Amino acid sequence: MLKNRIIPCLDVKNGRVVKGINFVDLKDAGDPVEQAKIYSDGGADEICFLDITASNENRDTIYDVVEKTSKKCFVPLTVGGGIRSVDDINKLLNCGADKVSINTAAVENSKVVVDSSKKFGSQCIVVAIDAKKNGDKWEVFTHGGRNNSGIDAIEYAKEMENNGAGELLVTSMDRDGTQVGYDIDLMSRISSGVNIPTIASGGVGNLDHLVDGIKLGKASAVLAASIFHYGKYSISQAKKHLKTKGVPVRI
Amino acid sequence: MKVTIVDYNSGNISSVINSFLEVAKDKVNIEVTSDLGKIKSSDKLVLPGQGSFKSCLDALQKINGLTDTLNDFVINKKKPLLGICVGLQMFADVGYEETETKGFGWISGKVSKIDNQDGKYKLPHIGWNQINIIKKSKIFKKIENNSHMYFVHSYEFIPDDKNVISAITEYSSKIVCSVEKENIFGTQFHPEKSDKTGLNLIKNFLDL
User: Fold this and answer.
1) Active site residue A11
2) Does ipTM surpass 0.85 in this model?
3) Which residues of A174-196 are buried (b: 16+ CB within 10 A; e: fewer)?
């Protein structure tokens, strides 16, 4: 039986982890490679790097990080942040990323999704949707949540499926950083509207939130950052909890 | 021993290369090439494959003489080959992804889209699923039945002769996820992304 996945996400800036694991005895707490290895050894089903490097001159640092990580971690590695073109995707895949997650570029030019899924296969193209509630609908935001595109998130999800996305990473901007749980309404509407797997993101504060993301939000996978970083929960605790709640996980 | 990962521009093979290098250390020489001479002189081949059945076969055929060299290696020389994902699917006679495309025909059968039961099951089949080992295979040495492996695919290989099936996985139906026919081995899952269990399988192939 297919298991639901738990995906820890690490924010990487200029090649260094910004919010990272700081509860274990690390030689270098800012080293993304070491942190990714801790997660994969701990049972993470996938690792996600979000590159939040702001300046263009430091963009290339992520390639080095991906290359080193892929030599140490043998679980799938997804990399997002700052991807603008098919060429950027090609470079990341060549460095050892297994999937890329595309956000702003997919909104501005859906051809990037069409072309890259044709060239590399849908299996490695994740479209990241940052959505914020406005009245009775959700709108898609770009540029790290700064710009409102005005596009309806539910419709956009379907469009991206048709364009060749293999998965959708759905982040509720209303919930991100709040630790009050995923936006279940948003998640379940998107999950039910498409036939490709969805990943829930934004708002996890405890382990029951992960259960809700899968059971109520109908997500195939759950992504979380801060609950794992500061030692509040380990990956294995999260998996045990999901298992006791009847969610199939790989243990 | 020399093991060659066939590089025919089938998309992203970095993970395959990294995992084989990790397992091989300095005991086995791992080459990554499309050079026909080097392929011929190899002891074993690894045939990765990402993207569609058609795009992989098109890419293979763009390299002059590669298909004949692979046929000779597998059918005449009977040296071991491991196909991964679309690499396994290409063993079939025919595939139906994008358009009807002829495969190698090493193991007769077809590659069709997984039946998602009217949307009840999501496609691609992405994530960790358990393998049910139904036939003793050398590549499963020290790998327990019901181990988890990482999958990502929307099409499945349906071989005519069920005796070649060494493992299946349960999704919307029983999906063939490993085959073995004499010197030909294939996995639908990705051993290179299946953590320690996957690396164990790679070791078993190198140890053959």
Assistant:
1) yes
2) yes
3) bbbeeeebbbbebbbbbbeebbb
